[in-house]
From TrEMBL:
One of its GO terms (cellular component) is cytosol. This is HTH-type transcriptional regulator YybE. GO terms for molecular function: DNA binding; DNA-binding transcription factor activity. Residues 1-58 form the HTH lysR-type domain. The gene is yybE. It comes from the Bacteria. Belongs to the LysR transcriptional regulatory family.
């Protein structure tokens, strides 16, 4: 059963005349008659009563036409909704991002983007690295904002911000008065690490690997705010980006004097995935923005 057959059927049902229906559809009458006959064969019942050139909907045709009108209207609504979602100016941008970025970075991006694109809408999903990766891979998110080290071979990524990492200690720690520290100076310190589902862990492990230095974690937390809480309680030290959601009282942020201790945040998307015009416009805005 084809969509054109259904459209032809409704035209004949409306005009109750094959010749006038074929003229309105701009096809030949034999072609129209063949299409209607084929539709009736597929359904298994006649849809019209025929008397010479006169044709009239029978009870099956009346029953069928009400459902077809509704079905075609649903299709039209679906096409209209897709057009609205993908339109660069009015479309929906499906964005997934790491939990910690929801405190300041993502709200600021959304606010600034909507200032110049007021009709744009966002569908936001936040979570740990596993959660948002699944959103991207299953096609529920157009793009992600995440760390570089979470990118796989079938994904594209561009950096939008480099955030310096700091050694973070409690206010009562013996290093709290230092203006800077080398990572080697943390040897023997209880270290608050991260579990694998946190986007920052891969970055920290990569930096450790490059320097040939390793710290054994005393605790592995689920997220960055938990790490900050453990540090505040005096249970250890860690390495964190200085973001708004982590700025707890009684924490001391010490610059790392070793080179390369940055956390790169960027846009990630699937190489084989469809990026809507609305999402593409947002990506262009973010990649060229100076607000980050």
């Amino acid at each position: 059963m084809e969509l054109t057959q259904l459209e032809y059927f409704l035209a004949v049902a409306r005009l109750q005349h094959m010749t006038r229906a074929s003229e309105s559809l701009r096809i030949t009458q034999p072609a129209l008659s063949h299409a209607i006959a084929k539709l009736e064969t597929e359904i298994g019942v006649p849809l019209f009563d025929r008397n010479g050139r006169n044709i009239k909907l029978n009870r099956y045709g009346t029953m069928f036409s009400s459902w077809i009108v509704q079905a075609l209207q649903n299709i039209e609504n679906g096409l209209q909704e897709i057009a609205e979602w993908s339109n660069p100016e009015t479309g929906v941008i499906s964005l997934a991002y790491l939990n910690i970025l929801g405190v300041d970075m993502i709200p600021n991006l959304v606010k600034c983007y909507q200032a110049s694109n007021p009709k744009a809408r966002f569908e936001l999903t936040q979570g740990n690295i596993g959660d948002i990766n699944e959103q991207l891979e299953q096609g529920f998110a157009d793009i992600m904002i995440t760390s570089k080290e979470s990118v796989s071979d079938d994904q594209e990524w561009i950096c939008i911000k480099r955030m310096p990492l700091y050694i973070v200690v409690s206010a009562g720690h013996r290093y709290s008065g230092r203006s800077s520290l080398k990572m080697i100076e943390l040897s023997g310190e209880p270290f608050i690490g991260l579990k694998n589902n946190c986007g920052l862990k891969a970055t920290i492990l990569s930096r450790f690997h490059e320097t040939g230095f390793h710290l054994a974690s005393t605790y592995d937390a689920e997220d960055l705010i938990t790490v900050a809480g453990f540090i505040k309680a005096g249970l250890g030290v860690s390495v964190l980006p200085q973001t708004l959601g982590l700025m707890l009282e009684d924490l001391v942020w010490i610059p790392i004097s070793d080179e390369g201790w940055n956390w790169e945040i960027g846009l990630k998307w699937r190489k084989d995935g469809f990026i809507s015009p609305a999402a593409k416009r947002f990506m262009e805005f973010v990649s060229s923005s100076s607000i980050l």
